[in-house]
Amino acid sequence: MTNKIYAAILLSTVSIGSNAWAQAAGDQTASADASASVDDIIVTAQKRSERLRDVPVSITAASGEQLLKQGITGPNDLEKIVPGFTYVKSTYGAPIFTIRGIGLYDTFVGVSPTVTVYTDQVPLPYLAMTQGAGLDIERLEVLKGPQGTLFGQNSTGGAINYIAAKPTDEFKAGFDLTYGRFNQIDTQGFLSGPITDTLRARVAVRREYMDGWQRSETRPNDTLGARDFTAARLLLDWDPTDKLKFELNLNGWKDKSETQAPQFVAFSPSRPFDQGGFTDSFDVIGDRAPAPNKARVADWDRDADYQRDDWLKQISLRGDYEILDNMTLTSITAYSDFRQYAQTEVDGTDFNNVNILQVARVKSFSQEVRLAGDLGDRIKYTLGANYQDDKVNGADIGLNYVSSQNGVGPFRYNSFAKRGNQKIKTKAVFGSIDFKLLEGLTLQGAARYTDQKRRFSGCLADGGDGLLALGIQFAGQIAGGSTNLGAPGGCVTLDDSTPALLTPETVRRDLDETNTSWRAGLNWKANPDTLLYANVTKGFKSGTFTLIPAIYASQFTPVTQEGVLAYEVGVKTGFFGNAVQVTAAGFYYDYTDKQIIGVKGFPIFGNLAALNNIPESRVVGAELEATIRPFEGLRLSGGGTYVNSKVKGSFITPDQFGVEVDIGGDAFPNTPKWQFAGDAQYDFPLSSSLEGFVGGSLTARSSTYSRVGKNADYLIKSYALVDLRAGVATPDGKWRAMLWGKNVFNKFYLANMSHQMDTVSRNTGMPATYGITVGYRY
User: Fold this and answer.
1) C-alpha distances in angstroms, 479 versus 254, 471, 474, 496, 609?
2) CB contact at 8 A, 578 and 615
3) What CATH number does the domain containing 180 carry?
4) What is the domain range of residue 186?
5) Which residues does 578 contact at the CB level (< 8 Å), separation at least 6?
6) Element housing 457 (H / E)
7) What is the pLDDT of residue 601?
8) 442 - beta bridge partners?
9) Measured between alpha carbons, how far is 606 from 571 in angstroms, rounded to an integer?
10) Residue 62 and residue 56: Cα distance in Å, rounded?
11) CB 3.0 to 4.6 Å from 773: which of 12, 178, 469, 602, for a disulfide?
């Protein structure tokens, strides 16, 4: 341990990494406004540089300095500053992002999300790729509502844009070093500057380490949850001529952290004893008491290895050519390679009810070409095309599990694999136009046509010992099907019409879809500091396949694309010389064919996992954000969101316990009706060479359910979290030291609840943490 501490400290003094406090040179598209204040931040939400208050879209934006002060290092922390955004870690660890109720809960990392994430307009098309997105950030932009016309079809909830700090014209360097509870050691630093008159570089590295914060309920000296994460980025900006510019981005990360174990809540056998459930789990965990309401207490299998081996490698090249003074051609080419290898405890006990090993590989190539400019002072336009080619391979492997249902008839099995491969090709053309009708009054229109083809192959496979194959063969014989036997390790999925093993064939499915996203808007610039706008937007999320324990081939029937028709009105304004800045919006969404993972009934086996579309839903809500500077040195900011989601009509589906429920009238899972995020900081002089500051933030949300059905076992209660900070800094910003605490009142709260195999389990949020951060900028 000592060697790791020394190595981390050494790394912090010589490494190159994140610039959260530096006054870095901005994205070349915003270079003219690089000195803009936080309150007059420049954004590229419409793929051009504009003041935040001039963009007729609901946006939460934050500078890199603000993110560092509040300890926000990745998308999982965005609830602290983005009202309406929720982050959930699925049962197997895959991240789920939801904005204003629009999200898809799925345990597989290769499922297309409803919220897209970009770094400098380069896509991170699957949310598991986004862990390193917060490295060395100049600013963050979170766009709410469908963004399909400019950002693609899988952005019905919104889009998250990270803007990396760019290479500078002068030499700059810096580092940050954090030490905190659980032996947390985070180091980050950067080097930036010119190489030649036309070539500039910036290199950044972040290294995070923390001991395990969870304690085993049955083995108090056993811990889990260690953090071991490294991210790096190299940026090269080359300006061969005044009209031609290139940006090369080489980045990646590696995660060797341990997965989190859930807490055991209740014993709930998937197959009751009187219906043939096997007795092993009944005998061991049938009378087990629920875990206490203490965040650190959990349990997991004694000898299992829960260390991840995940990584991402990405390369992108952007080129901008100024064809005319008012016309620019832009090309963005990117290739991403992601690998996951992670075992997760699912049942929350030291009994091996179920452990899942997730193995996945995603390779994604994307190309965008667009032409943007203006025609006089009345028309601004963008025309472009996209192409994306993804290969997604994955397997969820059940390891030596013992449950009430791991058997068919007299045959027992203790391992299985869910396999699935997809090839996805997406082509799109898009365009947008802004037309100034009158001085201050602008009409906007945009559209995108998308053509996507998905090719899927997958199956439920025997665990390698032939035991599952024997059981499935027995079931097929009962159903009057073939007596052929799948090979050990081979596919055992049954054909629905004639229950015969598909071995050695896998199930193959195609999904070809097209759609046209569009947006129409009218905005009025009443005065330089006030904007009123109204938008109508249609967006789509692509249909999808996922990994399912498919005993029957029809379980691989995909969900088709879902659509959101969004109506929004809003205002952005300032008062008292912009000492008070306010943004407000009201919205209504018509939501069709919402995608969910549910269950369907099948012969012999009863309720099995399957994808479903909910025909009709709706979301109605409002949000308010404000920044107030009542006097010099004090800054107050905060925002709240009200989201009322509802399934329209009647929709009957079995819940995770196999009980049929009508979810008509229910709110969406993982969608709190109320959310609030606020922050305050006061800066004051201590001497001519030293300044002090104190600050804090509050995050609060109302209750929600983690799954459909409003079952009490899925209830996530409301909670509020408080973070505090205090420190000193030099007036020129070169040195800063900060004491901080997160969840300072050690609030016990839940992040997720689920039912898998024979247990109801829950994932807790982090307990109180605290530490010190020091930084230096040259």
Assistant:
1) 48, 13, 9, 10, 20
2) no
3) 2.40.170.20
4) 2-194+201-252+266-777
5) 39, 40, 529
6) strand 441-462
7) 64
8) 436, 523
9) 52
10) 17
11) 178
Q: How are strands ordered across the β-sheet holding 759-764?
A: 263-267, 759-764, 750-756
How many residues are recorded in the chain?
778
3-state secondary structure 341-395: EEEEECCCCCCCCCEEEEEEEEEEEEEEEEEEEEECCCEEEEEEEEEEEEEEEEE
Distance CA 617, CA 645 (A): 8
What number is the average pLDDT over the span 17-27?
34
In 3D, which of 80, 5, 138 has the Cα closest to residue 722?
80
Q: Return the number of other C-beta atoms located less than 10 Å from residue 576's C-beta.
A: 10
| Residues 6+ away with beta carbon under 8 Å from 324 | 373
Q: Is residue 138 part of a domain?
A: yes
Residue 229 to residue 253: CA distance in whole angstroms: 7
For the four alpha carbons of 35, 39, 40 and 46, in that order, the dihedral sign comes to positive
What's the rounded Cα separation, in Å, for the pair 1 and 9?
13
Quick one: which of 113, 439, 92 has its CA closest to 260? 92
Q: Tens of pLDDT along 267-323?
A: 988 877 777 777 778 888 888 999 999 999 999 999 899 999 999 999 999 999 999
What tokens were used for 168? 């500078």
Q: Report the alpha-carbon distance of residue 424 to residue 390 in Å, rounded.
A: 5
Beta sheet of 59-63, edge-to-edge order: 59-63, 137-144, 158-164, 115-119, 122-124
Nearest to 138 by CA among 28, 231, 247: 28
Angstrom distance (rounded) from CA 762 to CA 268: 14
| Residue (of 646, 583, 616, 705) closest to 86 by Cα position | 705
If one counts the domains in the chain, the total is 1
Q: What is the per-residue DSSP string for 488-499?
A: TTSB-PBPSSS-
> In a 3-state reduction of DSSP, which class is residue 3?
helix
pLDDT digits over 363-396, tens only? 999 999 999 999 999 999 999 999 999 999 999 9
In a domain, 257, yes or no: no
- pTM reported for the whole predicted model: 0.90
pLDDT digits (tens, 9 = 90+) for 725-759: 999 999 998 999 999 999 999 999 999 998 888 89
User: Quick check: helix, strand or coil at residue 696?
Assistant: strand
Amino acid at 417: A
* DSSP for 8-36, written as a single string: HHHHHHH-----SSS-----GGGGGGTT-
Check the CA dihedral 299-303-304-310 and report its sign: positive
Report the C-alpha gap between 262 and 751 in whole angstroms: 10
**CA distance linking residue 81 with residue 323, whole number of Å:** 39
- What one-letter code names the amino acid at 214? Q
Question: What Rg, from alpha-carbon coordinates, does the chain have?
Answer: 26
Kindly give the pairing relationship between strand 244-255 and strand 227-238: antiparallel
Question: Nearest CA to 484 among 502, 498, 496, 468?
Answer: 502
Q: Please give the structure tokens belonging to residue 560.
A: 């088709």
CA dihedral of 48, 49, 54, 60, whole degrees rounded to 10: 90
Going from the C-alpha of 291 to that of each of 98, 111, 215, 225, 721, the distances in angstroms are: 28, 32, 12, 17, 22
Query: What is the token pair recorded at 352?
Result: 């091996």
- Tokens representing residue 605 in the block: 């086996």
What is the number of alpha carbons within 13 Å of residue 86 lying toward its C-beta?
Answer: 32
Q: Which of 281, 277, 417, 105 is nearest to 759 (CA)?
A: 281
| Residue whose pair of structure tokens reads 């997406």 in the numeric block | 426
Residue 260 lies in a domain: no
Whether 258 maps to a domain, the answer reads: no
Distance (Å, whole) CA 217 – CA 127: 32
* CA distance linking residue 324 with residue 321, whole number of Å: 9
- The residues, any chain, with a CB within 8 Å of residue 690's CB and separated by 6 or more, are 728, 729, 730, 731
